[in-house]
Amino acid sequence: MNRTPRLIGYALMAIAAALAVALRRGVIDSFGPFPVAAVALLIGMIGVMIVFTDLMVRGLYAQVGAAKNAAPGNAASHEEMKCDDEG
Predict the structure, then answer these.
(1) Which of 9, 14, 53, 72 is the most exposed place for a label (fewest CB within 10 A)?
(2) How many domains does the chain have?
(3) Interatomic CA distance for residues 60 and 11, integer angstroms
(4) Distance (Å, rounded) from C-alpha 56 to C-alpha 74?
């Protein structure tokens, strides 16, 4: 599993920030028929969704891998953990 999707998401967020700076400085007013602010928000939102999804999937795979690697005899059952928490 590589980091390419997350890096693409970061690049999209950087593009959105660059568009916002260009709009603020007055370099660009519109991007085709759309205002630059709308395009920057859309691109930034897509980048954030890609990064967030990639991090969530990595966390899920890490939990599944840890559960597979845990020895069945060493893991405490849910009832044992519940009793430990109560008393």
Answers:
(1) 72
(2) 1
(3) 24
(4) 27
- Find all residues with CB under 8 Å of 39, minimum gap 6, and list them: 19, 31
**CA separation for the pair 77, 16 (Å, rounded):** 48
Q: Is the pLDDT of residue 82 over 60?
A: no
Compute the C-alpha angle 22/25/28, nearest 5°: 50
pLDDT of residue 79: 53
Parent domain of 64: 4-86
Please check the confidence at residue 81 and state whether its pLDDT lies above 80: no
> Would you give the end-to-end CA distance of the chain in angstroms?
42
